[in-house]
Amino acid sequence: MKLFPEKLPDEIREKLRDGEEVIALAELGKSPCETPGVLVLTNKRVMVRAKDGEEELALDSIKEAYLKTYLNVCVLAVRLDGSVKSLAVFSKSRFKAAEKLATLINNIVIGKVPYSILKKSIIAKRVPVRKRLFRELFARLKPAWPLIAVSLVFAVLLRILDLVPPYLMKILVDEVLVPKAHLEKLYFLLGMLLAIFSCQILLNVVKGYVNTKLNLKISRTIRYQLFHKLQRAGIIYHERFTSGGLYARIFDDVGRLQSLVSNTLERVVINASAIAFIGALLVTLSVKLTLIVLLPIPVTFLAAFIFSKFAPIYYYRQWRKWSNVLSAVSDSLAAILPLKVYRREREYEQRFLRNHREYEQSQISTYKLEQAFWPPVWLVFVASSLLVWLIGGLDVINGALSLGSLIAFATYMWEFYNPIFGLIQSFSELQRMKVSLERVFELLELEEEEGGSYSGKILGDIAYENVWFTYDGIHYALKGVTFKIKAGQCVGIVGPSGAGKTTMAKLLLRLYKPQFGIVKIDGVDLEDYDLEALRKQVAIVLQDTPLFNASVAENILVGKPEASPLEVMEATKLAAAHEFIMKLPEAYDTEVGEKGAKLSGGEKARIALAAALIRNPRILVLDEPTAMLDSLTEDRVMEALERATENRTTIIIAHRLSTLKFADKIVVMDGGKIVEQGSHKQLLERGGLYAKLWSSQLKALTRQEAIALDR
Ligand SMILES: Nc1ncnc2c1ncn2[C@@H]1O[C@H](COP(=O)(O)OP(=O)(O)OP(=O)(O)O)[C@@H](O)[C@H]1O
Ligand SMILES: [Mg+2]
To answer: Does pTM surpass 0.85?
Structure first.
């Protein structure tokens, strides 16, 4: 399925009316269970063109789109006013595409997502096609240019030195050994040979050193650029990549780039100069035979052209399979606990083996592709070399060419062909490296988080103005959220799971940018804030903030590195964390383990809270601050928080509504929208979602009491 396709089939383009744009185009019939045809979703209608006819539905007439799933297929259907209609059958393998289509339609007809927002969020997801990869790579390697140049000079020098000993040997044989005279020349020539061989050894050592330095410099330069980018890129980009894929890029791909610059480049330069040099020599020997020697060149170009069309597909597949292998390892290690709990080790081992086998297969099929191309090309070279012998031989018989010239020509011919084979091999390597380069550039070109310049002191007025936000460009987590908080207020946000509460909090820290609408603090658009100033004054404790693999104290000091021990203690006391920290084996110096694995959930939550409080932020957002705590500790933390909310704007997201007893206002969210707001009392009187949530929590308590009394 293509979203906002650039090229449209003529018969579809003709059908479009004024102002109508194609959002999605899905070709049907790729598998036998689909009816051939095409499904087009525009901003006005859905059209289905199949062999046996055409159908179209105005989006206005659709109430909802949904999928009916069967054993092998799923059917995209829509509910109209009082009836239902099946639009198209998709094979199970295209379930994701069908689901995307249904969601897109629902975004428009149910979510009422304005078309401009929908388009913007889909197009923003596109990855641009990159060109001139190699040129860009060299531009980025500027710090390594001197080393590259030195390494190339050494390579050429060594290649030239290689040519000298055979020439000296020839003089030795012709002028000393055969005439059995000029003994002094023997010493001189042997001395020369010794000098040249020593020179070669020395140059090789120096070149090896230069190349090692070069390799290290390239991998450091590019790996650092990648790491820097990953640190600076917005969270939204991090969610696009698997950790296996990222490792493959940072380590394997950069390794390949390094070999591109230090080996392939050198070979290309040497081979190309050898071809030019020996080609010139061939022409001086015989123009006619040189033309025959050149016969395979157009064939090679053609093969290379066709190869470059196919090869990236194969190399890309191989790359993906390899990153799947890495993912199999990193996924299982990241989830080792549930994996053990559910005894899924075997399954993950199988997955690893399966992925590895697929990788092997992709490598074999790449090998087959290469072998389907180049051996036939070599055969053409062999044929034309035999042709040289045939035509040259006839010329020798006719007396048009001397035997010596033919033999010299035939010898040089292979000296000419060998570097061509070398270039062909380099060409194959370059195709493979292109895939690595693309993967690396995809990361290098990620947009960095960029702030504005405003860095004033925050008072704490917050305003969300018609904010629309989607993580994936398809599902909307926030749909036109509008609300205001006055400086110093404490506001509670409640609502069912998945309502968009955490998402709203994340937008306040500019971790994500809304696709539409504005979030303001003190009347200033968040876009205009300097990120550092913003994040210093706004603190968020997320539901599951992982801690750093460091000591307790260091984890609290991330909030404010320059804080004194006294401040740390004040913050931990406020977060009701001081007591349990003092009971840890090394108190504040206890290491918390990876992601804080050595602490309990409630302990982690309180350390994260202390890290937020120590900054004394103007705006404090707490996402389920007490979800992990027992009711006694919860009471203590809430009491402390009540004090902490004085003089600052506080947003508390909570499921346990009793946590919000001191909130000035409560905002109720559902399905990405704000459905109610007001005080606890007002909301109860309203009898809406809040009242329902409240009564169900109350019911749970009374039921518990009733059961307890019964016993
Ligand atoms: N990183 C993400 N990538 C894609 N979708 C996401 C991401 N985070 C959340 N979502 C989706 O966005 C929607 C809102 O999620 P959010 O975390 O804001 O809900 P919530 O109200 O905080 O729920 P809970 O009470 O369970 O914490 C959900 O449908 C969720 O699946
Ligand atoms: Mg949440």
So the answer is: no
